[in-house]
């Protein structure tokens, strides 16, 4: 299967590269706004250099593809409308238009848990503890917490419009990604440890412990994320589906039941099974 990945060298794209590139099922094309130097960990990959904001630039990369994994976009909740509009609104339109023009059958969209972010605002920090009782699924009303979350909700809706009004594409999978971390920080303690190293918070302090509690709920291990993508690529039954991008964590407040039932998602990781260890 020929598969195009946009935004290929971010956290999620590199998780796919790490776990699926060497399988015999896929021949990947990596589209990114910039290439990586030869000394970079992903510098040995051929890159189709283009910006999803420019429809004419990205269009040739879609020819001959069976599926597109669309991960490119502005990724921060503090972004202004000006920050998110072109990469997340125009870029989504350009991606779906190119997929239709090139007759790509399947689109997997990197959405976000922030599509439902106001539920977290209303219930945190108690929400981060085990047995809190809230569990959201794809049928609950959308409640974005930011312009970023709202643009991802738009992307989900635009994808639905495309697959339910005309073909192609004929299948669309929205993954509401929670916490996927860089390879070197891929544990439930990784987000807090990044803050220790980058922002100087105190290891073991109140902010550190709050971040760990949240990540134990939202962590999506890189192998589980790649597996979820693999499930979507292998599926040929779903027209439109929304799936939570999270591991099988005891504290998660997002349901993964429809992913289990519809596309065979079987995550291996549970954040509660991980013991704290040093990242020094």
Question: Can you walk through the features of this model?
Answer:
The protein has 280 residues and is of the alpha/beta class. The chain has one domain: 3-Layer(aba) Sandwich (Rossmann fold), CATH 3.40.50.720. Helix content is 37%, strand content 14%. The protein has helices at 11-20, 55-58, 81-101, 117-123, 147-165, 190-199, 206-218, 222-234, 257-263; strands at 2-6, 27-32, 47-49, 67-70, 106-112, 171-177, 240-245. A 7-stranded parallel β-sheet has the order 3-2-1-4-5-6-7, with helices on both faces. Helix 1 (11-20) crosses helix 8 (222-234) and helix 3 runs parallel beside helix 5 (147-165). The mean pLDDT is 95.
**Low-confidence region ranges:** none
CATH class: Alpha Beta
Mean pLDDT: 95
Q: Spell the H/E element sequence.
A: EHEEHEHEHHEHHHEH
CATH topology: Rossmann fold
- CATH evolutionary superfamily: NAD(P)-binding Rossmann-like Domain
User: Terminal Cα separation, in Å?
Assistant: 40 Å
**Order of neighbouring strands in the sheet with most strands:** 3-2-1-4-5-6-7
* SSE-based structural type: alpha/beta
Oligomer: single chain
Features:
280 residues; alpha/beta; Rossmann fold; seven-stranded parallel β-sheet; 37% helix; 14% strand; globular
Summarize the structure.
The chain is an alpha/beta fold.
Strands, helices and their partners?
Layout: E1 2-6, H1 11-20, E2 27-32, E3 47-49, H2 55-58, E4 67-70, H3 81-101, E5 106-112, H4 117-123, H5 147-165, E6 171-177, H6 190-199, H7 206-218, H8 222-234, E7 240-245, H9 257-263
